[in-house]
Amino acid sequence: KMMSTASVQVSRLRCNGQVRVAGRNEFPPVAPGGPARLSWALTAAPQGKRDLVQVGYELHLVRVDSPLADERSGTPAVTASSCCHEWKRPDCALQWHELQPPDCRKLLPGCWYRWTVAVKDSCGTEASGSSYFYVTDPQALTGVSWIGSHDIRMNELRKEFNVGETVVSAIAVISGLGYYELYINGKNVDPTRKLDPAWTEFDKRVLYATFDVKDFLVVGPNAVGVLLGNGWYSQDQYIPPSVQKPAYGPPRLLLNLTIATASGRTITVVSDESWTGRSGAITFDSVYHGEHVDARLLRPGWAQPGFTDPTSLWLRASIMNDPGGAVEPQAMPPVRVEVRVDDSK
Predict the structure, then answer these.
(1) C-beta atoms surrounding 158 within 10 Å
(2) Average pLDDT of span 1-17
(3) Backbone angles phi, psi at 47, to 5 degrees
(4) At the N or C end, where does the chain have fewer CB atoms within 10 A?
């Protein structure tokens, strides 16, 4: 988010080289202990004076419960009481600031932070901009099980749970192999994000993503649903006979949803054998050959609370083998749908 006077703007805010687009449920990950390089650009506003240079900056770091809600409300001014950490460089032209390990160790794992940089240019004009990053929690998926099925092509999984009071924050940490889409109360938490997670050698490295899902939850019954695809994991696509075919197995899910309520209570929903799943309307999917959809098997509301489906075979999920690779945060930007083209015209 940019804030400026009439002549100068702070733009292109990056964390470790990654730009977060305002409004998206995507936040650059920062490992506990860092480092984290925060950078920005100083640009002339429309009708503003050119050839401006930065002469100094201040950086403020504030922990937030829900970055999407914080951003939607409008970034509040940084005050002494709200500021977790601050750095003042009144005589510095550098347009970046690196949080060193001692600084990063002060940050809490599993939390979002809003960083705001206020700059002064050579004409004495001040401007500021802000963005967000997420400090990963190495323990978030420790002890959580991969689930799926060896009996059916289980590509729709769901679980219901209850939230008894107002939600303060909710963090979903998820990986689904080969691909996944996450739904809460029937809504896709990031509908433009596709082909997730990024492709890796799954016996060496498996990537996960983190989402702010506070706005998707309600007081009362809730439901979480995950749609799985083969991707590069099940290897349904053609592989030359000369190449050894990796035997990864059927699709599987790994998830930890942590909810903090107004009274300080924590509710945790993880992937385990309490989930149910079925073989859904996508009867075939392949990276190379597309997908087959049987519309007769579509079940509207399958990821909503109170859903019943007497005509489908919903089975308890089974514990699946770990793919073998280290589970790590996905640092690179995901594949996204940026433009939709109407081919009927």
Answers:
(1) 22
(2) 72
(3) 70, 5
(4) C
Give me the DSSP letters along 33-67.
Answer: T--EEEEEEEEEPTTPPSS--EEEEEEEEEEES-H
As a whole number, the mean pLDDT across the chain is 88
Q: What is the dihedral of CA 111, 143, 200, 21, to 10 degrees?
A: -20
Eight-class DSSP state of 73: T
Cβ(301)–Cβ(186) under 8 Å? yes
Amino acid letter, residue 136:
T
| pLDDT at residue 240 in the model | 62
Name beta bridge partners: 277. 157, 315
* DSSP conformational letter for 121: E
Distance CA 182, CA 179 (A): 10
pLDDT in tens, 118-165: 888 877 788 889 999 999 998 999 999 999 999 999 999 999 999 999
Closest of 73, 66, 70 to residue 259, by C-alpha: 66
pLDDT score, position 235? 65
Give strand pairing partners of 156. 227, 278
Report DSSP letters for 279-323, one per residue.
Answer: --SEEEEETTTEEEE-GGG--TTTTSTT---TTS--EE-EEE---
Confidence (pTM): 0.89
CB atoms within 10 A of CB 339: 4
DSSP-derived 3-state class of residue 215 = helix
Alpha helices in 99-163 (DSSP H): 101-104
How far, in Å, CA of 42 to CA of 114, rounded? 19
- Mind giving me the DSSP string for 249-266? -S-EEEEEEEEEETTS-E
